[in-house]
């Protein structure tokens, strides 16, 4: 089980479903939710400003929608790469979308923290796959 995960999505129903699945699959102890990239950036800003070690309370995994109002996933990825990746080098991000175009997949290669593209909504099989693929060696027993 991870300590923290974050979901960034403007669809409240998908946020609710993801949070319920994360809880029922024992994926993470805490789920942080943001309705767009700007809210997520503000969360990371708060960690940097208020923590002596910002990474200690950071999510270990982030589910990111690409298409949102205010600040979309693309702008979030750009800002995170520029300012936050040095503070949170271990954060892994999965793009959570109903559809990702081939050209978007190519563009995502620019961001090393993006480790996966998953279909929305998430389910227990996807969550278990993430744990075994990216965290098996360093997760707490559930």
Characterize the structure shown.
The chain is an alpha/beta fold and 142 residues long. It has one domain: Response regulator (Rossmann fold), CATH 3.40.50. Helices cover 41% and strands 21% of the residues. The chain has 5 helices and 5 strands, in the order βαβαβαβαβα. A 5-stranded parallel beta sheet has the order 2-1-3-4-5. Strand 3, helix 3 and strand 4 form a beta-alpha-beta unit. Helix 2 packs parallel to helix 3. It is globular, with a radius of gyration of 14 Å.
Q: Let me know the average pLDDT.
A: 91
Oligomer: single chain
Give the count of structural domains. 1
The strand order across the widest sheet is 2-1-3-4-5
Percent of residues in beta strands: 15-25%
Percent of residues in helices: 40-55%
Q: Major beta sheet, specifics? A: 5 strands, parallel
From N to C, what is the helix and strand string?
A: EHEHEHEHEH
Q: Can you tell me the overall shape?
A: globular
| Intertermini distance | 5 Å
| Structural class by SSE content | alpha/beta
CATH superfamily: Response regulator
Uncertain segments: none
What is the alpha-carbon Rg in Å? 14 Å
CATH topology: Rossmann fold
Individual helix count: 5
CATH class: Alpha Beta
CATH architecture: 3-Layer(aba) Sandwich
The tally of beta strands, per DSSP, is 5
């Amino acid at each position: 089980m991870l300590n923290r995960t974050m979901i960034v999505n403007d669809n409240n129903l998908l946020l609710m479903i993801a949070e319920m699945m994360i809880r029922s699959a024992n994926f993470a102890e805490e789920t942080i939710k943001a309705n767009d990239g700007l809210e997520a950036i503000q969360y990371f800003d708060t960690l940097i400003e208020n923590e002596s070690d910002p990474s200690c309370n950071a999510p270990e995994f982030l589910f990111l929608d690409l298409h949102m109002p205010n600040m979309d996933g693309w702008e979030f990825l750009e800002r995170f790469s520029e300012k936050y990746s040095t503070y949170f080098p271990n954060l892994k991000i999965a793009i959570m979308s109903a559809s990702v175009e081939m050209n978007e997949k190519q563009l995502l290669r620019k961001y090393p923290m993006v480790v996966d593209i998953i279909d929305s909504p998430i389910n227990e099989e996807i969550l278990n796959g993430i744990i075994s693929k990216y965290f098996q060696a360093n997760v707490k027993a559930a």
